[in-house]
Each structure stands twice: as C-alpha cells, then as structure tokens.
Amino acid sequence: MIVHVHARIDTGMIRIDSHWRPILLLWFTGVLAAAALGKFASLSPVISADLKLSRVEAGWLVSLIETGGASLGIIAGLLIARLGSRKALLYGMGLLTAGGLIGALIPGLWTPFAARLIESAGYLMVVIAAPSLIATVARPQDQGAALTLWSTFVPAGFAIGMGLSGVLLLFTGWRAVLVVWALLAGAALFAAARTPVVETKSDTRLVWPPLPVWLMCAGFGFYTTLFVGLIAMFPLFLTEQGQSPSVAATVTGLASAATLGGAWGAAQALHRGERARWIALCAGLLVPAALACLIFIGGHALWLAGLIIALNAVSGIGSSLVFARLPNMSPGLNAAAANGVLTQFGAGGSLIGPPLLAAIAGHWGWAALGPAVAIGSVAALGLMTAAEFSRRGQLTHRV
C-alpha cells in the first residue's frame, strides 16, 4: 500500500497526508472489530475452565461473531445504505463497546454468549460501513491502495487480538481483558465521532446490487471457504505430522500474518495496471492451490512450515484485489449494499470452510485437500473473471 507522507524538515516531524488520516482511522476501527475474532481464540480456554463450558459451547463462543454476517449481511448492507454508513459505523463501535462491557461485568453462564451476539451485530455494521466510507473519502488515485489496506483488517486484527489478549492474561483475568478491549473500542468510537467523514446513504428505495457484484462476491465466498478452512486445519495437520501444539500454533500464526504480504503485492499490481492485476489475481488463487497439493503430501517440518507460510502470503493477493475492485463492479450504487453482499459470502465461507475441509480430510485423507482446494480456487477465479467481463459488458452496452 502507498501512503503519502510529508516531512517538515524544520522540526523533524513527519505527518501523514490529510487525505489518508480518515482512511487510517477507518482501517483501525476495522482492526479493532476483527480483534473481537482473535481475542476469544486466546480467552476461550480460560473462560471454558471458569464457566465449565463444553468444547462445543467454547467453539460457539468463538464463532458467534460471524453469525450476523453469515445470516444478515445482504439485508444489513441494503439497510445501512439507507441509514448512512457513518451512523452505522458509530452504532457498530458502540455495540462492540457495550458487548465487551456486558460480557466482562455481568455474571452468568450465558452472559458471554449474549454479549458475543451483541458484538456480532457491531462487527457486521463496522465491516460494511467502514469500507463504504473509505471508498467515498479516498481520492480516485488512492482508492485502490486504500481498499487494499482495508483488506488487511482481519489478519491484522486477529493477530493483534490473539496476541494482546494472551499477554494480558499473564497479568490479569479474562474479564479484565474484555474490559480493556471494550475501552479500546470506546476510544475508537470517540475518535470516529470527532472525525469529519462524508456521509454515504441512499435517500429513497433499496437498490439491489447488479450481477457483477454477485459474481465477484460469490468468488470471494469460495476463497474464504478454502483459505479460512485451511488456516483452521493447519494446526491439526501439523500435530498429526509429529509437531507439538505450540509449534503448530506458531506456524499458523506466522502464516496468518504473512497474508499482509499478499496485500502489499496486490497494491503493487494495482499500481502497475490491468495486465499486472490479472496476473496477480491468477497467481493469488492458483499458486496457493498448487502449494496446498504439496503441503498435504507431508514432509519435513521446516519444509511444511515454509510452504504453509508461502501459501498464506500469496493467497492474501486474492482477497485484497476483491476489496479493491468491488466498487468498480457497482459504480453509482451505494457501496454499503455491495459490501453487504461481500460480507454475507465472506462470513458464510468462514463458517462453512473449517467443517467442510475437515469432512473431506476425514473421509478421504489429508491428501484429498490439495485437489479440493485446486477445484475451489479455479471456481473462485472463474467467478471473479466473469464479474470483470460482466461489468465490461455492461459498460459497452451503455456506450
């Protein structure tokens, strides 16, 4: 990503270009929202022991954050288009703050589950509203880089949420950790409320997104099904290959962080033009599929770790290009409606991916995941390509 900075030589101070300040703040709100995914990955063992939760209940406590997007993403996008993305962002951060405080301060076995549902609603509003606002406030020459930056909010937030929560647990209990995250969300809410951002909303009827949006988002659904499923399966695969749980977790964490490198590669491709973008899209989907085939054959620990990290680094290109290209699929349409469709498919894929890939591995063995990922990657590439050509055809027809 390219962020313009200007240096004041007389004072030695460096300030960020004013055009990028609201974009970075919006990205930060997304990171905080995604931290709600990672924090419970660290906290769930402690919460389970404290509240005597079963493994299934602990799993639901982690995954409930995605229920809003998987079930209501499209509807939420259409409604936010009318409500206004700025209002929705503020309401979403407010719900994340309230959910964190309720889960931390109100005792009871089911309180964390209720709080998680509140956070799920807040997360849904933020991840639809924030990129819609970014697409509006970014200058035309910066929009691709700005939305590519936005595409990193999940891996960045997940890593920060997981890591910081783990560190805080060394010094305090899980309830205090939830309070810290709630206060951070409240601080972001205060900062967002004070930042002037152009409102984006529809004044009249609900507008259904056009075909290119659906094709692009369907391709993204295949993408998240595959690569969220893979990141969930890697720890189990590595332990079955003889690695300790700590090593497996470390490799998976590094692989998740490596996705940020793919976002940088996508930004470079967008900067170099259409041909580079097409090459990057093909590489971002097909190279990881080939690496998956190699990984699940098995091998030396360092070899597998390197392949897993490389797979996630390259796969980050695909998601970044989807976020950057989505506004081009629906020019003139309120971006919140398109982002609602993207959220629905993305969250649905995140929920389906881990159990689907686990079922394939359980029935046919680990080696079957390579061909499965290859087939899914080709399907994702086909849908994204169809979206681009469908959009081009609409433009030609209008001319």
UniProtKB/TrEMBL annotation:
Localization per record: Cell membrane
Query: Isomerase as a keyword?
Result: no
Q: Could you tell me the superkingdom of the organism this chain comes from?
A: Bacteria
Q: Give the matching PROSITE patterns.
A: MFS
> What residues does the Major facilitator superfamily (MFS) profile domain cover?
22-394
Q: Could you tell me which SUPFAM superfamilies the record lists for this protein?
A: MFS general substrate transporter
Instruction: Give any Pfam family that matches.
Output: MFS_1
> What InterPro entries would the database entry show?
MFS, MFS_dom, MFS_Efflux_Transporters, MFS_trans_sf
The membrane-spanning stretches of this chain are 23-47, 59-81, 88-109, 121-138, 145-168, 174-193, 213-234, 246-266, 278-297, 303-324, 336-360, 366-389
UniProt entry keywords in alphabetical sequence: Cell membrane, Membrane, Transmembrane, Transmembrane helix
Keyword Translocase on this protein? Answer: no
| Membrane topology of the entry | Multi-pass membrane protein
Which PANTHER family has this protein been placed in?
Answer: CHLORAMPHENICOL EFFLUX PUMP RV0191, PURINE EFFLUX PUMP PBUE
What is this protein's record name?
Answer: MFS transporter
Supply the source organism for this entry: Asticcacaulis currens
